[in-house]
Amino acid sequence: MLTRRHFIISSASLFSAAIARPISAQDGVGFDAQVTRPDPDPNANNPWGLHPRFMPTRVEHKAGLRAGDIHVDARARYLYHIGTDGSAMRYGVAIGRPGLYIPGTFRIGRKAEWPSWTPTASMIAREPEVYGPFASGVPGGPENPLGARAFYLYEGSRDTYLRIHGTPQPWSIGTSASSGCVRMVNAHVIDLYENVETGVTAFLYPQS
């Protein structure tokens, strides 16, 4: 049974109008430039006003964790990407609102840059006034709810419709804000994306 445990050692308007065409590679480069600095260091500054603890930080982790995997500590609002040298990169995240966060062990079945987004039927049924206008989907771009990158969480061959993804709402980091997914700052998820392979495991731990 998946349980939350102390597995990391600490160390020193909702949407704008949609673009009515798929994004091209050139669009993607341009979109990246809108949400990142020329300096590739994601820790170089903090234009989002995040608490310092939610900025990318390299930490030591307990022995026995598999390199490449992702661990999400829902209580602390941290995502850890396990490295090969006994360290992990830690990022601040937002998690699902009360009753919508789903802990479990998942496989990253695919990943995408500047993904399109379509609200699920359950989201539309739960909040039709919010999600109904977007039932036909929203193309990728800086105002898309999935942000710059998305990791798609699977159980076996089944897409759970849970995602780890960027967000156009960086002020939500550190809170319970989403409809069940794990949110990251766009610049941070771009940094993470290049280092995560499909097929690795994502552990989403309970909040208690």
Notes on the structure:
The protein has 208 residues and is of the alpha+beta class. The protein has a single domain, classed as L,D-transpeptidase catalytic domain-like, CATH 2.40.440. The strands form two sheets. Strands 1-2-5-4-3-12-7-8-9-11 form a ten-stranded mixed beta sheet, covered by helices on one side. A two-stranded parallel sheet has the order 6-10. The longest helix is centred in the first third of the chain and has 11 residues.
Short description:
The chain is of the alpha+beta class and 208 residues long. The chain is 14% helix and 30% strand.
Task: Label this structure with key terms.
10-stranded mixed β-sheet; 208 residues; 12 strands; L,D-transpeptidase catalytic domain-like; alpha+beta; two-stranded parallel ribbon; 4 helices; single chain
Q: Kindly identify the CATH topology.
A: L,D-transpeptidase catalytic domain-like
The second-level CATH architecture is Beta Barrel
| Beta-strand residue fraction | 25-35%
CATH class: Mainly Beta
What class, by secondary structure content?
alpha+beta
Looking at this structure, what is the CATH superfamily?
L,D-transpeptidase catalytic domain-like
What is the total tally of β strands? 12
Radius of gyration: 16 Å
User: How confident overall, as mean pLDDT?
Assistant: 85
Order of helices and strands: EHEEEEEEHHEEEEHE
List the SSEs and their pairings.
Elements: E1 8-9, H1 25-35, E2 57-61, E3 70-73, E4 78-82, E5 87-92, E6 95-96, E7 104-113, H2 121-126, H3 128-131, E8 149-155, E9 158-167, E10 176-178, E11 182-185, H4 186-193, E12 201-204
Parallel strand pairs: 3-12, 6-10, 9-11
Antiparallel strand pairs: 1-2, 2-5, 3-4, 4-5, 7-8, 7-12, 8-9
